[in-house]
Fold this protein.
Amino acid sequence: MIDEKNYSLLAHNTFGIPAACDRFLEYESIAEAQAIAHFLRASTAPLLLLGAGSNLLLKGDFHGIVVHSAIKGIDVAPIDNDVIVRCGSGEIFDDVVDFCVTHGYHGVENLSLIPGEVGASAVQNIGAYGCEVKDVIESVEAVNLATGEVETIAGSDCGYSYRNSKFKHEWKNHYLITHVSYRLSKTFQPHLDYGNIRAALAENHILTPSAKELRQSIIAIREKKLPNPKVLGNAGSFFMNPLVEAHTFERLITRYPAMPFYKVGEALYKIPAGWLIEQCGWKGKHLGRAGVYEKQALVLVNLGGAKGTDIIALSDAIIHDVEKKFGISIHPEVNIV
């Protein structure tokens, strides 16, 4: 177990914000997570449960305790035509996707190259290209901070919705996640009807992709439009795509016939936030050292030396302009601390 004071978080946030915390605790086993839970019950300090920091914006130093999971391991158990893939919460999520594709376990191909760790996947309900991780989460194992006991929570009980879960709200700072189990299929059923997946495959003369080819295509798409955080600090998609009701959608599509959209259920429509931001003229623009990525307006970047407050100022300006032009609100996807 790692226990360090006055710990730099520069390597723990992909925005590259130079910040520190008062104390950093890291657990590599369930027993260590239980020991940390025991310690935290006697502490009154603010608490931040941190994954890889790929969905985090730090305003500045965190004056409290940061806890991180370093539990590794991937175990597989067959069940009918499916498999349960149980992963340590400290595993890199894309490494898990690669493992599953390589071994013929299907259902996460569209989630390729999403940054972050396994534990955060269960908190954030990560998603991309028409798929969400909630659709494959079988269960989440976690240490209850109030009791120190290990609980196994069914995925269906986690309150998942678009980029949301109970772990972000009523269960926030209540659990230290140790493992996440995904239920995947041995039968490959590709999901291709979202965004430009089919077009990207067609460029390589692929009509019926294998799981590996679909993963490679998703990776290529993401690498074209998302900057490498090691080169240009960012947290991927900064804003959630807004969901609007039918009457708002009809107003917008009448005024903007070329507006892209995706129907969600019977009465909601998802509008790409990147398109809204681009229509407001922000793509490739900047405020000080905080900018909007030139290839994807959904991504805010640290141009070098930006503070968390600089990114927030840019975000606020964008939110204001989208509201003014379209009459709808967009909200950050990243966790701002």
Observations:
- The chain has three domains: 2-69, 74-185, 233-336.
- DSSP finds eight helices and 20 strands in the chain.
